[in-house]
Amino acid sequence: MLRDKNLVPLSRQHQHALALCVRIDRASPIADSDLDAWQAEMAQKFRSEISVHFAAEETVLFPAARGLGEVDPLLDELLADHAWLRNYFAHAEARRLSAEEISHFARRLSDHIRAEERGLFERLQQLIKPEDFATIGAKLDEILKDADESCALPSDATRLRRPPK
């Protein structure tokens, strides 16, 4: 289904986060010598974009969806995911994650994003009237203006390398 224009900014941020997940997956298993660099990148991504993204969803989108009945259980799951992910981002900020935990984080974040895109967003586009979506979109834009969507370049340690031939 074509994404409603009012959800496009959130979907764009999902793409940015998925790119990090893919890079972590391709780099796995992450060498102990690269753990700090990966965690620094995760923490930077949270500070610059994901924290604002979560705030937009939790203060605008999720409350607008709450009460539509069938999406309430999914909203509960997504909010629980946000709490879990915030905890992992905090551990990344403190440089307390192992290589296995970073890989687990990437899988969980990827699954979370897919649940929002394929579950919540698809269903909301069917349930919410266009004029209500316009109001939601304006509120989302107001919060998301504080997110830094610049492309952060990977460090030498987190840059993916071609495998030797």
Please explain how this structure is put together.
It is built from 5 helices and no strands. It is mainly α. The protein has one domain (9-27, 34-144). The longest helix is centred in the N-terminal third of the chain and has 31 residues, at 35-65. The termini are far apart. The model has no long low-confidence stretch (mean pLDDT 92).
Q: What's the layout of helices and strands?
A:
Blueprint: H1 8-27, H2 35-65, H3 72-93, H4 99-127, H5 130-144
Number of domains: 1
Give the helix tally: 5
SS elements, strand count: 0
Shape type: elongated
Helix content: over 70%
Which sequence of SSEs, written as H and E, runs from N to C? HHHHH
Major beta sheet summary: none
How big a fraction of the residues is strand? under 5%
Quaternary state of this entry equals: single chain
Radius of gyration, Cα only, in angstroms?
17 Å
**What structural category do the secondary elements indicate?**
mainly alpha
Distance between the termini: 40 Å
As residue ranges, the low-confidence spans are none
Q: Estimate the mean pLDDT confidence.
A: 92
